[in-house]
Every structure is written in C-alpha cells, then in structure tokens.
Specification:
Elements lengths: L1 H14 L4 E3 L3 H11 L6 E3 L2 H7 L15
Parallel strand pairs: 1-2
C-alpha cells in the first residue's frame, strides 16, 4: 500500500491532479486511516461514482484503475 501512496504523491505533485483510492472495503479503509490519518495525502472515495464527482472531465473509458488486493 505504501508503494501506491508514494506513486500517487509523485503523480499528484507532477500533474496537479486528484489521486486516490475508491471501492475499498472496511478493512482497507481502516488500514488507510491507521497508517495515514495524520498525513492523508490522497483522496478516499467510497465508490467510483463518488470519485467521478471530483474528477474534472472524468470519462469512463480513459480511467486507470489499479486493483487493491
């Protein structure tokens, strides 16, 4: 998870875009909050539909999704 977060931070800083996680379960949410609560430098969206509300020009076919497992 830390690898993804570091990658997101670089992408966000370089491209000035919103990056984050969506469609996570309770266990993953609890892990995010535990490890990054004081320094949450990425967004958490309960669903992809909610994330799309915050993404300017979001297009279903142009998204990049990395599954968290």
């Amino acid at each position: 998870m830390d690898t993804f977060v570091k990658m997101f931070q670089k992408v966000r800083s370089k491209n000035h875009i919103i990056v984050g996680f969506c469609d996570y379960d309770k266990k993953k949410y609890d892990a995010f909050k535990k490890f990054y609560d004081g320094d949450l430098s990425f967004s958490l969206f309960k669903t992809q539909q909610i994330a799309s509300l915050f993404a300017d020009g979001f297009k279903e076919k142009n998204k990049n999704i990395l599954p968290l497992q």
